[in-house]
Amino acid sequence: MALVPLYTTLIFKAAQHKTPLVRLTFDEEYDYIVVGGGSAGAVVASRLSEDRDVKVLLLEAGRVPNFFLDVPLLAAELQLTKFDWAYRTVPQEAACFGLKNRQSLWPRGKVLGGSSVLNYMLYIRGNRQDYDRWEQKLGCEGWGWHSVLPYFMKSEDNRDPSIAYN
């Protein structure tokens, strides 16, 4: 009985699911070709396409997501499927003791949306000190925490500055 709400949700989502438009023909020329439709590639293609005077092509080796990919609980079930590149780590010397050949699965999304589709819909910003070190010690001007924070907030659509550091 505990799984009834999950199954009900999946059936409802399946009924509502629509396949995104996929072009079967292509133009001969593009101003920009973005390879990889993961988190970064999709954002880059989207931003470039805001200029109506340019033609942008986004290429993705994987498939179009289906409605099961919208359920974080099912993320583990997507590993080693057609949505995953099925990578494994090299054998580890100090970890993975209980795993075959001491190798861990390294799920990477082979799907529009990339690895973000397989990560339980989790998102974690990098450490503030890392960004500040990049700027101060490595000379990466514009990569300090206060410089990148507005971009994090824009991508998160966080409109409450009081929780900007959470």
Automatic annotation (TrEMBL):
GO molecular function, one term: flavin adenine dinucleotide binding
PANTHER family assigned: GLUCOSE DEHYDROGENASE [FAD, QUINONE]-LIKE PROTEIN, GLUCOSE-METHANOL-CHOLINE GMC OXIDOREDUCTASE
Family recorded in the similarity comment: Belongs to the GMC oxidoreductase family.
Spans through the membrane: none
Signal peptide (residue range): none
Keywords tagged on the record: FAD, Flavoprotein
Domain Glucose-methanol-choline oxidoreductase N-terminal, chain residue ranges per copy: 109-132
Coiled coil stretches, renumbered: none
Name this protein carries in UniProt: Glucose-methanol-choline oxidoreductase N-terminal domain-containing protein
Pfam families linked to this entry: GMC_oxred_N (PF00732)
